[in-house]
Write a structure and sequence with these properties.
Blueprint (H helix, E strand, L loop, with lengths): L1 E4 L7 H9 L7 E6 L12 E6 L7 H22 L3 E4 L5 H13 L3 E5 L10 H13 L2 E4 L2 H10 L7 E3 L11 H15 L5 E6 L8 H10 L9 E6 L16 E4 L5 H9 L3 E4 L8 H9 L3 E4 L14 E5 L3 H12 L2 H8 L2 H10 L2 H12 L3
Parallel strand pairs: 1-2, 1-4, 2-3, 4-5, 5-6, 6-7, 8-9, 8-11, 9-10, 11-12, 12-13
Helix pairs in contact: 2-3, 6-8
Length: about 375
């Protein structure tokens, strides 16, 4: 028996769990996830136990207590079931997770950990040391990019044989298509979107995502202010990004809040070019959703963002994530509307790219790790 543990299996993070586990055919797996899990719940092809309820608590202390209670319950169950392997998706409360890790080591249970990001974004040195300690004691680590593997080896001194590079698959948010269509039409009408080039910055707006560079670029280039040619969607919860310089530009629309999946997909589908000048990233759910939706993207060289562009012409790379590179590329693309249309309409390339990030092969490679001696 194998335990698959994801305390953060809600929202978009649940898509990974379902997409992976839905390809299991003959392995006995118990999935311990969040009580908030709702992604295709009725057709989840493995036994699901809603163990983690900390998200429903209002204070940090209550969340930590609830999480600790869930882990203790899990430990008792492990003593009973004696699973041969445990696959952990996220570290949530450091001191609790490290005690759990040592508990598993004492029982000599194989531990697979998926490092979706080598460390959380904008981590302190203290947090990095925590992860370095954790990586030392797990049996196998799954990362999604070669860059993450290299970072684990060079910065965290993880042995090569311990690291497995398995890509993250495309993200299908599984929303109500009619609800997305209605939302999309409503946005088009309210913003007077016709045949303009729509540049979009979607999701959490933060420094590591380069949101500040997008604000600066749009504010400084009057050429982009032509509402008959261009629109900028700056949609998603804002984390300390000053947008005052673009607040009053007529063709800029700012939506400073967490988006529903329907809103996110509607905005994505209205996008001509998705802007992703990220300063730091391992892998991006926004990019994987864009690939699934066949949306052209402009990315930096951070992490593996530009890797899809080595396979097909699905967009552009600015290279080093800095203001000058972003500005030069956006202005160039803004003057090449037909190129955007051609990329968008190249169905063969999009199908090829989507197949490269297929969950079939990803699940196969993951389950091979389960069978390693």
């Amino acid at each position: 028996m194998i335990y698959f543990i994801d305390p953060m299996s809600y929202g978009n993070l649940a898509v990974y769990d379902y997409s992976l586990l839905s390809h299991n055919q003959n392995i006995e797996i118990l999935f311990f996830g969040s009580s908030l899990y709702d992604y295709k719940k009725n057709v989840l092809p493995t036994s699901f136990i809603p163990l983690f309820k900390y998200n429903k608590k209002k204070t940090s202390l209550k969340k930590a207590f609830s999480y600790t209670k869930s882990i203790c319950s899990l430990m008792f169950r492990i003593l009973k079931d004696k699973p041969r392997l445990i696959h952990i998706q996220w570290i949530k409360f450091w001191y609790v997770d490290i005690i759990f890790l040592f508990f598993l080591k004492i029982l000599k249970i194989k531990i697979v950990f998926t490092a979706h990001n080598v460390v959380p974004h904008e981590s302190t040195m203290y947090v990095c040391r925590q992860y370095k300690f954790y990586y030392k004691y797990v049996t196998d680590i799954i990362v999604h990019t070669k860059e993450s593997k290299q970072r684990l080896e060079e910065d965290f001194f993880v042995p090569n044989k311990k690291i497995n590079v398995i890509p993250h698959g495309t993200l299908d948010l599984c929303t109500d298509k009619e609800a997305v269509r209605i939302t999309k039409e409503s946005i088009k009408k309210s913003l007077n979107i016709a045949d303009q080039i729509v540049f979009s910055m979607l999701g959490l707006q933060s420094f590591y995502k380069g949101s500040d560079m997008v604000v600066k670029m749009w504010a400084r280039n009057v050429e982009l202010h032509d509402k008959n040619k261009f629109i900028l969607l700056f949609w998603g919860k804002n984390e300390k990004i000053d947008t005052s310089s673009i607040d009053n530009i007529e063709n800029v629309n700012i939506n400073n809040r967490y988006l529903t999946n329907e809103e996110f997909l509607a905005a994505m589908q209205l996008t001509s070019v998705l802007l992703m000048p990220y300063r730091d990233i391992s892998q991006s759910g926004v990019l994987l959703t864009a690939i699934n939706e066949s949306i052209p993207f402009l990315v930096s060289s951070a992490g593996s963002l530009s890797e899809p562009l080595s396979l097909v012409k699905a967009g552009w790379s600015i290279g080093e994530p800095n203001y000058e590179n972003l500005e030069n590329h956006v202005l160039s693309i803004a003057r090449k509307k037909q190129e955007i249309i051609d990329i968008k309409n190249d169905k063969e390339s999009w199908i090829f790219l989507q197949n490269e990030f297929s969950w079939n092969s990803i699940a196969l490679e993951t389950f091979k790790i389960y069978e390693k001696p």
